[in-house]
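In this section we walk through a basic example: taking a raw amino acid sequence and producing a predicted 3D structure, encoded as discrete structure tokens. The instruction is simple. Fold the sequence below.
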Amino acid sequence: MTDTDVASVVPASTAKAPSGTRRRAWIVTALLVVFMMINFADKSVLGLAAEEIRQDLGLSASAFGLASSAFFLLFSISGAAVGLLADRVRPKWLLLIMAVLWSVSQAPLAVGGGLAVLVASRVLLGAAEGPAYPVAQHTTLAWFPNHRRNLPGALIVLGITLGVLVAAPVLTWLINHHGWRSAVAAVALVGMVWTLLWIPFGGEGPYATTSDNDSPAEASCGEGPGTGKGTAAGTLAQAQPKMPYRRILATRTWIGVTIGYFSTYWVIAFALVWLPSYLRDALGYSSAVSTQLLMLFWGLSGILVLGQAGLSGWMLRRGIASRWARGWVGGALLLISGVSCLALPVAPAGAVTVVLLVGAFGLAGAMGSIAATTIMELAPANRRGGALGYMNAVVTTAGLIAPTLIGSLVDTHGAGGYRYAVMITGALLLVGGTAAVTLINPDRDARLLSV
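The resulting token sequence is shown next.
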């Protein structure tokens, strides 16, 4: 490791935030974990009820894949647009509006309607959920300094896993006993309950408008009395010259993080929409066993996200640069996941297949947390929302492409189409892992941006 690889990652100031601020930080983090749980419960409904919806509405695999991809039609655009707004508008209110729109968009589908209502509902839901992850990360991480962000950032990603783990058994029970529309109604109702909690308890943290080297004591708590704005820190942030986004987006780190996270999101889209059908139709597992395997995949992913957060945080606190603590850790997991995918089609049935499935679909998730914390480290305070939003806009195009492509492969090749889908996924993961290992270096690129 060269001298340039060992960076100062602990803030210059050792002042601690007041205990009240720390308590509020974890309350906000907990609420946003639940926020992401609801977000991915919304997404998982179609995958869990795929067979029921196709039979009820008379859809082919291609038509169902197209309806699933409709969710991502405006997802990327809204993610970028609202990410930019997060640098100008209080994220508290952006998150509130998103959650309300989630519930409103699903209400017509819960009541009735055919393919047109399904597509319209998913398009509006996607537009409302597109900015959820970057704005939730932006809001959460603004409560913590750089060297303490790995755990809260990982918890937001864990919300994705918990959303699926909780949703899978509960929504499956609702689908089997009360029909798939009851599952849609349930997630819409939970979204409205969350908004009632967010109004009094949500807010922005002391690092929302300050650099990572500023002391929490010098930062505002994000909610100045009566104004909702910071004091000296907010004034300082407003006085800073605003860097063009194109400079941030041209860095090797932003490009490497985005490519790596794109491959992860491809796996997420595959898992949410087609993995239950892949397990049943291509691999021959029963519905009960498929549900157990799904919970195993997502459970391992959650454990791995927390493990990565602990390892990366431990490395950062010992002065090891983010190039290694984040880029190499995330890249290695993507590479292992890619190799597992490529080995699946030729693996013998049984325990080997299960191990490879777990590796293929359970290891890539940690890159979501790494991507958010790396961008927060790279970008200036007044450009973090936009930098995260642009990244999310590019990454989530995987959700637009993957379901339609896999559906087309299944219609063309039958159950054998899943073989091609898995091989394409493996190749993308290898590209993403290579990009993460070779390009991510936020210490270097942050210095270049400061020149």
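Looking at the output, two observations stand out. The first helix runs from residue 19 to 48. Residues 147 and 174 are 42 Å apart (CA to CA). In the next section we compare this with other chains.
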